[in-house]
Specification:
It is built from 9 helices and 7 strands, in the order αααβαβαββαβααβαβ. It has 241 residues and is an alpha/beta fold. The protein has one domain: 3-Layer(aba) Sandwich (Rossmann fold).
Length: 241
Amino acid sequence: MAAISSHLKLINEAPNLSDKVEFDEYAENYQKILQEQLRFFDGDEGYFAEYKIEIIKKYIKNTPKKILEYGCGVGRNLKYLIQHFQQSKIYAADISKKSLDIAKADNHSVHFYLLGEDTIVDKFDLIFVALVLHHIEPGLRLKVMEDISDLLQEGGNIFIFEHNPYNPITRYLVNTCAFDADAVLLKKRKLIKLLIEAKLSINTCRYTLFFPSFLKKLRFLEPMLGYLPLGGQYFISANKK
């Protein structure tokens, strides 16, 4: 965990990151900003959060004992993790103290870590990372990924969701979002390379989020579309052997 702390410090102090987003500044208005962003596309903001958790539930074979959401922000995914993994202990970590304070208020059963200050001594059967890596400077991503891998149990799984750079709506949303000012989007093949270099074995790579909530009846088509770079995001699952 000391290694993660040092890399987070580097991210915050790097001289070429003058536009680095400080999420403490957006924590109180995060949900409002997100809702405004998605209003023209989808009125159900929680739909996209649960969408991801349902994908994880579909692909894992065994119920994990301990789940960590790395980069939980204000906790918009946590209630769905709790709902869909009722037999699991849920943990969450973030670099933003104000975001964690908001997440804690609504998720009393979750154990929280403030990255850069708290020491994570647990090992996890499942680590969930949603829309975090595009905020990390490209030169630091491999080391951060190696540190996240160190938090996995042997045989544990990691699910990473990232924005699809090929989707024009996604690019528009990222380019017009205040807390994405520092975003450097990753192509799927680059994330695959990162995971392999971090000694993780790739299981599944799919594009996803093809259908907003008003088209959710069409989600049965998604397994046939996952290879097409058209979804709003993509996900990669890997495991530690």
